[in-house]
Amino acid sequence: MSTLHVRIWRGGEEGSFQAFDVPRLESQTVLDVVTYIQRSLDPTLSYRFACRVGMCGSCAMTVNGRARWTCRTHVAKVATGGLLELAPLANLPVIKDLVADMTPFFDKWARARGRFQGTRTRKDDFARVSPDTEQRRLADAGIECIGCGVCYSSCDVVAWNPDYLGPAALNRAWTLLNDVRDADGRARLAAVAGDAGCHACHTHMNCTERCPKGLAPTASIAGLKRATALAALRGELAVTE
């Protein structure tokens, strides 16, 4: 059994890295490493996890400089030379150690009007949407986002412009825009068309490259760019920011 040398961010925004030596095991995940340190070496270490099987996304951290789900990341694939450096997700405030404050991330979902706004009541029959329609296929392409924050942490534009809505919020806006049951399309386009909206994207594609679900937020943002431009030409867009 060999030893893995781990450096973990400790403290808040002005913290520093602390070194630990962890036994190297077969099929070991990065989350296994963090759990070992918290349970066996330092019980004060703070981090998030829930499902441990790649369903919730709450264990996302920065692993050797790249945002990843730690429960699905095997040490053998990322620990070059037996070294592992762990930090909280970038582009978000640090609460403590490996725990990032997700409030700005979800606030931007709200700013992008990422909430479904229907017109039916519980007294109405179920809405039926054919899976073969173009809008349904466009929505399906991005609908599996679970809000883990990996794309947001990987986005260069968010790093440069903290007001930028970010790939996850814009991807959510695009899926709702293509939901024929939703009644908030015009207001949603206005919300994502401002200076901090879809047109701020530089198409670096970090979000698409690093999405653990294999989604393409870059494509969703491109769709929003086309939709907002068309709405503006039609005189249907009233941007409020």
What does this structure look like?
- The chain is an alpha+beta fold.
- It has two domains: 98 residues, Ubiquitin-like (UB roll) (Roll); 131 residues, Fumarate Reductase Iron-sulfur Protein, Chain B, domain 2 (Orthogonal Bundle), CATH 1.10.1060.
- The strands form two sheets. A five-stranded mixed sheet has the order 2-1-5-3-4. Strands 6-7 form a two-stranded antiparallel sheet.
- β1 and β2 form a beta hairpin.
- α7 packs across α10 and α8 crosses α10.
- The radius of gyration is 20 Å and the shape is elongated.
- It starts with a strand and ends in an 8-residue tail after the last helix.
- The mean pLDDT is 95.
Key structural traits:
single chain; 241 residues; alpha+beta; Ubiquitin-like (UB roll); Fumarate Reductase Iron-sulfur Protein, Chain B, domain 2; 2 domains; five-stranded mixed beta sheet; two-stranded antiparallel sheet; 10 helices; 7 strands; 34% helix
Can I get a quick summary?
With 241 residues, this protein is an alpha+beta fold. The chain has helices at residues 30-41, 75-78, 103-111, 134-140, 150-154, 156-160, 167-177, 185-192, 206-210, 217-233; strands at residues 3-10, 16-23, 60-63, 66-69, 83-87, 94-96, 99-100.
| Total domains | 2
Order of helices and strands, N to C?
A: EEHEEHEEEHHHHHHHH
Q: Order of strands side by side in the largest beta sheet?
A: 2-1-5-3-4
The major beta sheet can be summarized as: 5 strands, mixed
Mean pLDDT: 95
